[in-house]
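Title: [Solved] DC1 domain-containing protein 3D structure

Original question kept below for reference.
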Amino acid sequence: MEYKHFSHQHNLNIHQVQQGQQLRCSGCESFCHGSVYACWQCNFFLHSHCGNATRYVKHPSHPSHPLILIPQPTYCSGSFLCNACGQSGNTFSYCCALCEVDLHVHCAFLPLEVSHKVHPHELRLTYSALEKKGAPQFCKICSKSLESKHWTYGCTKCDFGVHTFCATTDVKPGLYQMEDPADGATPEGYPGLQQDVCEAKEDQIEVELSEEALVQLYKLQLQMQMAEQVAQVMASMNLS
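Solution (posted by the thread starter after getting help):
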């Protein structure tokens, strides 16, 4: 079965990653496992959750504009800093070029609540670190500082906060779980991935209804971003 993804020029085939085989996802740069979409000609691979990610999301962390899925950052540096975790990236991201908001694909779909073995209560996702009278806050798992501009999981009742990537080290976000092929299934089966493909096609139908508006919005965001960059260059030249 072949699958066409907007970020790649060739059709992708379903591949079952074998034990000991090391393939990196071209969408999130993490190692692949289970069933993936593959283009062997280009060594291009996508996890199910990267390959089936919707073209845009209306994320509660940035309600002003939709975040658009782009295969590569539009910044001159060729990379972006994720507003959720603070880590850099140079592949897939959900982006609002107008506001310079960028999210890793996996960060964009973090669950609102998670459980972790280090704390008895549910930890809720917040879009900034828990504040306590201006005092610096530290992750209760790794003991490193919590940046107020980055997302955290926390329990306000207990003044307990952790980094998103610390909270999800042991906890697998349900939105990103993909069922492995059923035991004994034939290589052509992959029922878990087949279901993801069907669900993705249903999502694509909804997206196609506003595809033209989506493209126009993205172009407008890029134009405004470029205009701002030109203005900054001109200002620096005048100062010198």
